[in-house]
Amino acid sequence: MKNFTTLKILDLFRVIFERFEIDYSTMRRILQVKLTMDGRRPTTIMSQNRGGEKKQDANQFLKSLWFYAFIGLTLIPLLFIGDNFMFKMSLIFGVLMFLIMTAMISDFSSVLLDVRDQTVIGTRPVDHRTISAARAIHVSVYLFFLTAAIVSVPLVVGFVQFGVIFALLFSVTVLFSDLFIVAITALLYYVILKFFGGERLRDVINYVQIGLSFTIVIGYQVLARAFEFQGLQSSFEAAWWNVLLPPVWFGAPFAVILNGASGAYYYVFMALALLVPLIALWIYLSLLPTFEKNLLKLMDQAGPSKKKTTKGMNRLASLLTTSKEEHAFYQFAERMLKNERDLKLKIYPSLGFAIIFPFVFLYNGYSAGGSLDSITSGRMYLTIYASMMMIPGIVIMLQYSSKSKGSWIYHVTPLQSDAVIIKGTLKAFLIRLFAPVFVVISILYGFLFGIQIIPDLVIVLLIALIYSVICFRMLKGKLPFSQPLESAGQSDGWKTIPFALLIPVFGGLHFVVTNVPFGIWIYLVLLLFIVPLTWQRGLR
Amino acid sequence: MDHGPGKILSLKGLTKWYGEKLVLDDIDLDVYEGQIIGYIGPNGAGKSTTVKIMLGLEASYSGEVEIFGQNIKESGVSYKKRIGYVPEAADLYDNLTAREYLTFTGELYGLTADSADYKARILMGVFNLEDVYDSRISSYSKGMKQKVLLISSLLHDPDILFLDEPINGLDANSVMVFKEILAQLASQGKTIFYSSHIMEVVQKISSRILLLNDGKIVADGSFEQLRQKNKEGSLEEIFNQLTGFNEHQNLAEDFVQIVQRDHR
């Protein structure tokens, strides 16, 4: 096993761990094993080959850092908006903390809440404190890499532009914001673990994670509105509710030191930025043993299960599917999307984006145009296309499952073609996930723009049907729920980008058509012919 | 029942609730050195829960658990150095190779990496697995994984062994080797908790049989004692009798009929 550089660096802090009564050498050993495992791709059932697998270990996560480094580049322009550091640094921390927090929740929660450790390590003479610490460090190591990938280029640019003080300040505040995120997330889980147990606990954790992802998205929007844009000059008036926005805390030190800003608010923000992470970390470390004890509740067996069937949904399923096999896969996919928590965690937040994005675009149009009339009389309803942004992201996730090994069932059952599997799954996705979002937005838009947009909405719906088939091409023949969820990575994020770029094309086409007399009716009829064609031909 | 002098494990009034469900109902039990205990019972009777409690995986219970004369709630984790465990679901880090996994778990028990590696390699050889010692466990068959778990539970020469369906997936020859290993360990004074649903094996290897039903111990004694008491020929029949089960014929008939029913 490799002796990772990360661990050698960690050795420097040995004393700190020992102060907290953590068995350092055991913790180090656990981490070494974990890092080794992370470097190995999980095998899928069909790619299992016996014997010597001598493939080079390559950590998927470390590869995905390029993606984050790329996103980090988008922070650079923010460094150059105006002279107000309070403004630009809060914005930068907003983006940064947003990225880290979402990664923390969706990718690293499973590490923090891993119960497999209990049977393998917990049954051996290792105390709870050490196991927990190993887990927290494991997460922190990744967060460190993640943060480094995002900020390193902006840091260098900032150093060149604003000097060494800025660079130092930036490094320290970024470190504190990381601490803040790890500790707060862990404490949140601690509270949930304390009050719930068993199956219920797993559900609650899932909902909280989804809710949190939602909150972050909305909070991010609020942050952007906290500042008034006035040309390139932006001003900042501190208000009491800014205390609720952590990115603002981390912006304050820059304003005070580099802009010479002063005032009670700034000092409060600075104090929060410094103290909250430290206090949260301290509480977390002292709660470690109880955290671990409560974690055991995740292994509790479930009570008797309740049977829930909705007749309406069943009838809809029979109505929408054309064969018995397709019906079976529709039901199967529906259950999987409903019950698989890990998958839900990756999928549901994008539903939140899908609801919010059209309105964000609408709002931006409103700020630009100035009055409600100027929007409702125009073609702003086309912003509904933004809700389709969820489709590529979710469709690419449909290939994964945390129980992917169950996919042998596809291969042993006498199925004529894989098309029924895909059709059933795609229909289940459209009905269960896309339709609710689309209906909600359509109703709201109907009120805003009037009933004359109904044909347009139908067109959008038909485009969505075609678009999801196009997106299914991304999977390159991989069957739904057949790949291990652990192998889902940021490379998927790359793959969805070209497909996401199709959405504005569709929107643009629609815009052009609205300018032609009777254009939308002709377009509508045309689409009614194209949709069945794509569903028949496109899913081979 | 013959047993050595040393009391090694004792449960007093052990009770465990999962929500509203009573899983273990006031269990008292003393276990002595050198016993091989066949721990049996229907699904959901509380067997695994008892073992989890004794391993410290389950902290919310009432009653007392003493292992090596110390209450495990007070003694810290060091008592686990003398325990070996084979879990029922083959939970292990299967992205590691056998060498990596066994060295790792050996080290957790306090062995040095070198001696764990050395012993593990030889033990893998005993089970004819030296060729795959450096392959990932995820590429192993069920029986091979089980062998790795067995080795991992014995590498540090524990005094108590908790085995949950340990011969799951093993071929007949390996089972014979394994049974012999257990017999030899017991004769040296090691205590073995053997939990299984395969009654023939339990009947053969156990020196003492514990039957758990609905969270209570409903039978406790050697196979001979149980047989005299219940007037049945095999452990399987005793098991059926004590758990109040006598409708296997009817259930089987129903099952076959349903399978063959043509419904469209």
Describe the structure.
The complex is a heterodimer of chains A (540) and B (264). Chain A has 540 residues and is mainly α. Chain A is 72% helix and 2% strand. A two-stranded antiparallel sheet of chain A has the order 1-2. A two-stranded parallel ribbon of chain A has the order 3-4. Residues 43-55 and 229-233 of chain A have low confidence and may be disordered. Chain B has 264 residues and is α/β, with parallel strands linked by helices. Chain B has nine helices and ten strands. In chain B, strands 6-7-8-3-9-10 form a six-stranded mixed β-sheet, with helices on both faces. In chain B, helix 2 packs across helix 3 (113-126) and helix 7 (223-230) crosses helix 8. Chain B is globular, with a radius of gyration of 20 Å. The model of chain B has no long low-confidence stretch (mean pLDDT 86). Chains A and B meet through helix 3 and helix 7 of A and helix 2 of B.
How are the secondary structure elements laid out?
The complex is a heterodimer of chains A (540) and B (264).
Chain A: H1 5-11, H2 14-19, H3 24-38, H4 60-73, H5 75-79, H6 85-112, H7 116-122, H8 128-162, H9 164-195, H10 198-225, E1 228-230, E2 233-235, H11 246-258, H12 264-295, H13 311-320, H14 324-339, H15 341-369, H16 372-376, H17 390-397, E3 400-401, H18 408-412, H19 419-449, H20 454-472, E4 483-484, H21 490-500, H22 502-514, H23 519-537
Helix pairs in contact in A: 3-8, 4-8, 4-21, 6-8, 6-9, 6-10, 6-11, 8-9, 8-12, 9-11, 9-12, 10-15, 11-12, 14-19, 15-17, 15-19, 17-20, 17-21, 19-20, 20-23
Chain B: E1 7-18, E2 21-32, E3 36-40, H1 47-54, E4 62-67, E5 70-71, E6 83-86, H2 98-108, H3 113-126, H4 142-154, E7 160-164, H5 172-187, E8 191-195, H6 199-205, E9 208-213, E10 216-221, H7 223-230, H8 235-242, H9 248-260
Helix pairs in contact in B: 2-3, 7-8
